[in-house]
């Protein structure tokens, strides 16, 4: 297919609203709709149109502007819920990472020892992979920042040796993505196993899930669409769960619901009394006109969603 010249002119908010009407969308309150379009761009909203259009650029009969905004609001609240869960899991992983290495080796500054990490190498696209030096550079930048973190400044004011703060301080400098990179870069397989063990997953699955947690965390942080999304970073299928999990029908790891199952599994290890299920149910009930099948809850082949709430993981 040959490329074309982009020639679509910008449209006023009024023109955008008229285009929606011309495409069979029911708008109940023009003034309110215009106010929303002035705060949420047409293009951003357009990602939520597709499930309501059996034919391109034509809304199914009865689709309303309110339903589109409800879908947008549902997605926003889902992201906030997921972001909160990831924060709790991230803090727990950070803790187990520090504890698993520092106590096993009885070394407060293990992060400054090269032999705990893989040797640098160039990956398939020619980028240098060097977890040890990457972490050292993060620490160095934190120490030389114009306004260092309070705990970094305190260490430098109080101690001259070792030159870097202990691992439990340095780990507070890492994003979840940097922590994932560091976990992948551990030389010893037994170290990876020890860190993953409290979460009841194989260390390779744990590595994959860490990568997916980073990816979804960034989706949430950047306010991108999460509902009705194929995940670009697919988390590994959990083949040998410890304790309650979901049936094979739910193993579509490209879709959001599988990721929600991962959150539930990990949260159960972090906080057995978590209320993720109750919060999800409340969110689904708050927006009854938003088709939740698009987050990847499987059906029975006749259009009926499977009863996810009675799966062992969610029960």
Structural write-up:
By secondary structure, this protein is mainly α. Strand 1 (121-122) and strand 2 form a beta hairpin. The protein is 49% helix and 1% strand. A two-stranded antiparallel sheet has the order 1-2. The protein is built from twelve helices and two strands; from the N terminus they run H-H-H-H-E-E-H-H-H-H-H-H-H-H. Helix 4 packs across helix 9 (189-196) and helix 4 (65-105) runs antiparallel to helix 12 (276-286). The N and C termini lie far apart (50 Å).
Count of structural domains = 1
Terminal-residue CA separation: 50 Å
Helix content: 40-55%
Which class do the helix and strand fractions yield?
Answer: mainly alpha
Give the strand content: under 5%
Q: What is the H/E order?
A: HHHHEEHHHHHHHH
Number of distinct beta strands: 2
Short description:
The chain has 315 residues and is mainly α.
Observed structural traits:
2 strands, 315 residues, two-stranded antiparallel ribbon, mainly alpha, globular, 12 helices
Give the secondary structure arrangement, pairings included.
Layout: H1 13-22, H2 30-37, H3 42-46, H4 65-105, E1 121-122, E2 128-129, H5 131-144, H6 150-158, H7 167-170, H8 176-184, H9 189-196, H10 203-221, H11 256-270, H12 276-286
Antiparallel strand pairs: 1-2
